[in-house]
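JOB MANIFEST
job_type = single_chain_structure
chain_count = 1
residues = 188
[input]
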Amino acid sequence: MPTRKTPLLDGFGYHIYNRVNDDVQLFYGDSDYCLFLKLWRESRFEECCRLYAYCLMPNHYHLLLKFTHADQFPGKMSRLFDRYLKKLNRTIQHSGRFFDNRFKNKIITDDSFLVYLCTYIHRNPLEAGLVQQLEEWPYSNYLEFVGKRRGKLWDEEFFHLYFSNHEDYEALIKNGSVSGLDPFIFDE
């Protein structure tokens, strides 16, 4: 496989994302989202990274994380999606590729930008018109950030390092705007 345009390095934050091809979805219902999250935990990603924020959408996903052993991450992602997509293929009777390319990554070299990226990731379901209120979308760790769920897929230490409390994060995300940030969020 060719070398990545942006290498994966230990100690840096990354926005990891990918979108499926137009003819399929990545998640069709609650059971698909739950299966993916179960497989994420079983894959023991904590051995290679700290997951800060995530959002799973019907046709794509966003992860914000910091690598501790970046060299392990691509293999873990490959195995996770191999397992997940095999089960999904059986369910929806799909054959063919889901993704045109491997996951994309954008390195975050400015720690203060992590705050904006969390906001962007968590606002995805609202911006896409999937929900009226962010609390209605259970497939992200937004509910952990605002203190409304005690989940296991978030880094509480990261939250307290960058945010003063749950209420302030909720106000920031509900009142904040993330327009104009695409050059900082997506690799070109």
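[summary]
Residues 13-176 form a domain with the Alpha-Beta Plaits fold (CATH 3.30.70.1290).
Residues 55 and 140 are 4 Å apart (CA to CA).
exit_status = 0
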